[in-house]
Every structure is written in C-alpha cells, then in structure tokens.
Design goal:
The protein has 197 residues and is of the alpha+beta class. The protein has 5 helices and 13 strands. The strands form 4 sheets. It has a 6-stranded mixed β-sheet with strand order 3-6-8-9-10-11, with helices on one face. It has a 3-stranded mixed β-sheet with strand order 5-4-7, with no helix packed on it. The protein has a two-stranded antiparallel ribbon with strand order 1-2. Strand 12 and strand 13 form a beta hairpin. The protein is globular.
Length: 197
C-alpha cells in the first residue's frame, strides 16, 4: 500500500501531456514534475537583456534564440527544462514536430536565483552536459556582477569567469559578444558588490 505522503512519479509522456495543457510552467526530472516559481524583476531584466543582445547579433544568420518559454529536452527520458535563454545555430530540431521542445541547443544560459542556484550548478548542469549539441553553458548571477561561462573542450568543460562590467562575454559557438554592461543594464547592486565593476 502506498504511503499517503508519497509523491507521484510520471513518465516523460505523461509530463508532456500535462505540461502542454498547463497554465504554468513545470520542469521534469527523474519522474518528478517541479513547478517553476515566477522570476524576480532583476531575473527578467537580465534574461531580456541577454536575449535582446544575442538576437540582434544573430539577425540574418541561420540561428535562433529563445526565451524561457522554450522547453529543452536533455535526453529521450528527460529531463525537461526551461533555460532563461537558449540559442541554436543551424537547423533547430524539435520533439515530435510540435515546435515547443528544443532538442539541440548550442548555448544555454541560466540566470541564478537563491532557490535554483545549487540545481543550476549541479544536477541541471550534469544533465545539460549530456546534450551533444551543447557547446557553452552560462550562469549569470543577479545579485552581483558575475558571469560564468563553461565551454566544451572535447570531454571536458573549461570555466571562464567575468566579474567586471567592462568585460565582454564571448560566445564563440554562436559568434556573439555581449558586454557585461549590457547584461546588467538597469540592474542596481549594493555598493559592496560593485566595488570591482
């Protein structure tokens, strides 16, 4: 007999069927559906800044950039996630022809928050690394000037940190360069977090 407190597990197919009808977004990992909380103002501004800068640089090229409304599937059983920004150069591939679940991102960007940072750095990155198409994974802090770019180098991932507003985030896999001043445009930090900016 199942415990009254047991949490139901779902198949990827069950998750997708529910998600496509839902009024809110949920991610999926190891059989569990995880409701996503709304992002803060700073989270939304940073995500919008990144999307806008990348979109303007990809115009006229065979590339697409997506907001957090585009679901990404990591492998056939899942997990499924909604990155803050995802970009693909070349022909985008989608699950089951519906155009709502990307299979081959080239770049994934996550904007960190207190509730998701450990997952974005840990298990989520572990899952993302299984995507053969993925070349760069970027983590962006919203409480200080800090952008961490992981670049695939064969079977390893090379970390480069950007901590000053006069630096530029280079996304070589999609030939884009985003100044940190643009990433953090309209974001205000406590004085102690901008001393080096």
């Amino acid at each position: 007999m199942a415990s009254a407190t047991s949490i139901p597990r779902f198949t990827p197919e069950q998750y997708l069927a529910l998600e496509r009808k839902a009024d809110f977004k949920s991610e999926f990992c190891n059989g569990f559906i995880i409701a996503m909380a709304g992002g803060s103002r700073d989270h939304n501004v940073i995500s919008g800044n990144l999307h806008g800068e990348i979109r303007s640089q990809l115009k006229g090229r065979p590339c697409d950039v997506y907001t957090s409304d585009m679901r990404v599937r990591v492998s056939p059983p899942g997990p499924f996630a909604y990155p803050a920004v995802a970009a693909v150069c070349g022909e985008p591939r989608f699950l089951d022809g519906k155009g709502d679940t990307l299979l081959n991102p080239t770049v994934i960007i996550e904007v960190l928050s207190a509730s998701t940072e450990s997952y974005d750095r840990g298990d989520k990155f572990m899952h993302y690394r299984r995507l053969e198409s993925l070349r760069e994974y970027v983590l962006v802090a919203q409480d200080k000037v800090l952008v961490e770019r992981y670049t695939r180098q064969g079977d390893e991932w090379l970390l480069t940190e950007f901590r000053q507003l006069d630096q530029t985030l280079q996304l070589a896999s999609i030939s884009c360069a985003v100044p940190l001043r643009e990433v953090y445009a309209r974001i205000e930090f406590p004085a102690e977090n901008t001393a080096s900016a």
